[in-house]
Write a structure and sequence with these properties.
Elements lengths: L5 H4 L2 H14 L5 H21 L7 H13 L9 E5 L7 H7 L4 E6 L2 H14 L4 E5 L11 E6 L5 H8 L3 E11 L14 E9 L8 E8 L2
Parallel strand pairs: 1-2, 1-4, 2-3, 4-5
Antiparallel strand pairs: 5-7, 6-7
Helix pairs in contact: 2-4, 3-4, 3-6, 4-5
């Protein structure tokens, strides 16, 4: 999946850090997929110097705060169609698309410099299961609804459901990735949506709170 020769150019400490993190998350990932995601981090680091795509500037921190943080939600994703809302530089969409190659991912963001990077990364990684949409959430009209709608970008659970809930099929799930305990902000949801559970995520190497709010669309 990664470019020929890219795996050998990845610093060994990053490779080891990522492999240990995957073990802690109890995720099994082929070597070529691990190399692809580390190459993605190298690309992000390169583009970030010019385009300011992420506030995380260390590749080591990118492995923890971007890759492992995104992959911590793998068990909660249901397919076959997944929408990443406010994907930024492709998070969590690209790590999930590599980890779950049998599912189809749409990565949505309104900022062109970010989606240009995603398109570049998707092309270089050869991800046939990813499409990129450069448009505002409120104007996005997909041909089909999604089984999972996920986001790290929204400040509140309620606003996320209110804005993106129409894109989730009945019976599908909305996944809101949060930091501190979001129980209070998840209490008031639009009609037809209910909180199934709030999971505390443990991201290897990250000494900060991480939670995932899982919301089911009933109607």
């Amino acid at each position: 999946m990664a470019k020929p020769g890219t795996r050998s150019s990845i610093p060994a400490p990053l490779t080891e850090l990522f492999a240990r993190g995957l073990t802690s998350l109890r995720l099994t990932m082929a070597g070529e997929h691990q190399a692809a995601l580390l190459y993605y981090i190298a690309l992000l680091n390169k583009w970030n110097r010019v385009y300011n795509l992420t506030a995380v500037v260390s590749q080591r921190d990118m492995v923890t705060r971007h890759l492992l943080d995104s992959l911590a939600v793998v068990p909660e994703v249901q397919g076959p169609r997944i929408l990443d809302v406010g994907s930024g530089p492709g998070l969590p969409g690209i790590p999930l698309a590599v980890a779950l190659p049998g599912l189809h991912f749409s990565l949505l963001d309104s900022v062109a410099k970010k989606t240009r990077f995603i398109v570049q990364a998707v092309g270089e990684l050869g991800l046939a299961n990813v499409e990129v949409e450069t448009r505002r959430l409120e104007t996005y009209q997909p041909a089909e609804l999604f089984d999972t709608v996920i986001s790290r970008a929204f400040s509140g659970v309620g606003p996320f459901i209110a804005a993106a809930g129409r894109l989730c099929r009945p019976g599908g799930v909305m996944l809101a990735m949060k930091g501190r305990d979001p129980t209070e902000e998840a209490a008031d949801l639009p009609h037809g949506f209910r909180v199934e559970n709030i999971l505390r995520l443990r991201v290897p190497g990250l000494d900060e709170e991480r939670h995932l709010v899982r919301v089911r669309r009933d109607v």
